[in-house]
Design a protein that fits this description.
mainly alpha, four-stranded antiparallel β-sheet, single chain, 4 strands, 21 helices, 503 residues
Length: 503
């Protein structure tokens, strides 16, 4: 919508105006701004939005996809208003706030690292030197440290733990922007290679001093800038509202007076109009887990599909789109153009996402997740390290930290009990290790390609190269989380939060 109305250009120019240095734009857009979107929406949305913004700013599609996949790591544990943490607490039986606080003792260290990761990766992609990568170290440090500090404290508070990403991301954007505006700025700009070549042909310096504003004057007023950002503000507000537990409960019970009961494919299908439930045919309560994966005489595995069509995060995004269109004053032709372009772009990603989620449920009900999980118990005292890789594997298979927590959360607790390890630490590590698998799952890569590539053929051909590029980053990231878990298990056990006595 912002593209068809021309507001996207204003929004991207306002980001450029914070810093003309492309290295710093990577940090501001992919990391700080992306974290806000992850906190409100999750499930690939930040990669799509931030990726599209960066392509609009002139970054290459491949470059934008890779950088945003790398950036969408540290915030993932609290994506979509803390959905992964909520799920982890539900399946493991551990206290939700304590698990959030534990994740908040691990991921801030990664939050400090990721901005440097982005800058170095980008500079090397553009043929730059190590000196050019590290000469801007104050800005990534401020962005990462400001995010990490708030992440540490917000994750352990009852009021903000589900909104950890949002408050951390907003604080990081504001602090970094103020730091670059009033405290420090690089002496020279680092531009895209194509921009440097163009300037060189024109006989101009490829590292124009940032104080030279002759070619970078901001031409839009404050009201125009606010109007351009209005759709993003509406999106954040709607997603935050839809992610609030009380509002979800309200929507799920909105039509509770209208009830029905029937069958679909031979299985019961009924409930309320606002929250119908379908028992999966030939699956619901027909799979029995056995010790040590489940307690003795555990109930059969339920397989019920709750159609929360009102409270789903996608409904909030849809409402935000409608409100944004009205706020921007779209004409009939523009409404049609926006809808058609979105439908064409998301056609293949939706199919792939459905297949990947189906694979996740298949591994669960077939018992594959239990077999893989139990295999890790042979690691013994090294299990805290490999607990991160189990979460990483779950996200890689399912495409979601939430789904990974649902698959392995209970198993991680059982394994911790058998090995006499701290349950809070091991279970939380499933989620924090899983965030590093987010960059290589098929869902995220497909969403990144859909957002960054207009040509369907280029989009298809980019899947493999993108996966190969981020794969080793993913492996290394999970190892970092594993080392942090090991240190916290045996060297710094005092950082592990203590759950309430009642739990």
């Amino acid at each position: 919508m912002t593209v068809v109305t021309g507001e996207f250009e204003i929004a991207q120019e306002s980001i450029v105006h914070i810093s003309f240095d492309r290295r710093l734009q990577c940090v501001l857009i992919a990391f700080s701004f992306g974290a806000i979107i992850e906190g409100t929406s999750g499930f690939g949305t930040p990669v799509a939005i931030a990726g599209a913004v960066m392509v609009g700013l002139g970054f290459r599609p491949f470059q934008s996809a890779v950088l945003n996949l790398l950036a969408n790591t540290a915030p993932v544990a609290w994506g979509a208003i803390g959905t992964p943490i909520v799920t982890l607490a539900a399946v493991s039986g551990l206290d939700q706030l304590t698990l959030s606080a534990m994740a908040g003792r691990q991921l801030p260290w990664v939050s400090i690292l990721v901005p440097f990761w982005l800058v170095v990766t980008f500079v090397k992609m553009e043929g730059g030197t190590w000196k050019e990568a590290f000469e801007v170290w104050p800005a990534p440090l401020v962005a990462g440290a400001s995010f990490g500090v708030v992440q540490w404290f917000a994750s352990g508070t009852a009021q903000f733990h589900l909104m950890t990403d949002v408050v951390s991301g907003v604080f990081s954007v504001v602090v970094t922007a103020l730091f670059l505006r009033f405290v420090w700025h690089p002496k020279t700009r680092f531009l895209l290679q194509s921009e440097r070549e163009t300037l060189a042909k024109a006989g101009k310096s490829t590292a124009t001093a940032t104080s030279d504003m002759s070619e970078w004057k901001y031409k839009y007023s404050a009201s125009e800038t606010i109007h351009a950002w209005l759709p993003w503000i509406i999106l954040v507000a709607c997603c935050a509202l839809w992610g609030t537990p009380a509002f979800k409960a309200f929507l799920n019970g909105l039509f509770s007076d209208i009830k029905f009961s029937t069958t679909l494919l031979g299985s019961p299908f009924g409930g309320t109009l606002s929250l119908p439930v379908w028992d999966m045919p030939s699956l619901n309560n027909l799979v029995q887990r056995m010790p040590p994966v489940a307690p003795v005489n555990a109930k059969p595995e339920a397989a019920r599909f709750a159609i929360n069509w009102l409270s789903a995060a996608g409904t909030g995004v849809f409402v935000a789109a409608l409100l944004s269109g009205l706020a921007l004053g779209l004409s009939g032709a523009q409404w049609k153009q926006a809808f058609v372009q979105t439908a064409r772009r998301m056609k293949n990603p939706v199919l792939v996402i459905g297949q990947v989620l189906g694979l996740g449920f298949l591994t669960r009900y077939a018992g594959t997740d239990a077999v893989l999980g139990l295999a890790f118990t042979g690691a013994g005292f090294l299990y805290p390290f490999f607990a991160a890789y189990l979460g990483w594997l779950g996200v890689f298979l399912t495409g979601s930290d939430t789904a990974s927590n649902a698959l392995f959360g209970s198993l991680q607790r059982i394994t911790a009990q058998q090995l006499h390890l701290n349950e809070i630490l091991i279970v939380a590590t499933n989620s924090t290790g899983g965030v590093m698998g987010k960059m290589i799952d098929a869902q995220s890569i497909m969403v990144a390609c859909a957002a960054c590539y207009d040509d369907p053929k280029e989009r298809t051909y980019a899947l493999g190269p993108i996966f190969r590029t981020v794969f080793w980053y993913s492996i290394a990231g999970a190892a970092i989380i594993g080392v942090i878990a090991l240190l916290q298990a045996y060297v710094f056990p005092g950082v592990i939060p203590i759950p309430p006595i009642a739990k």
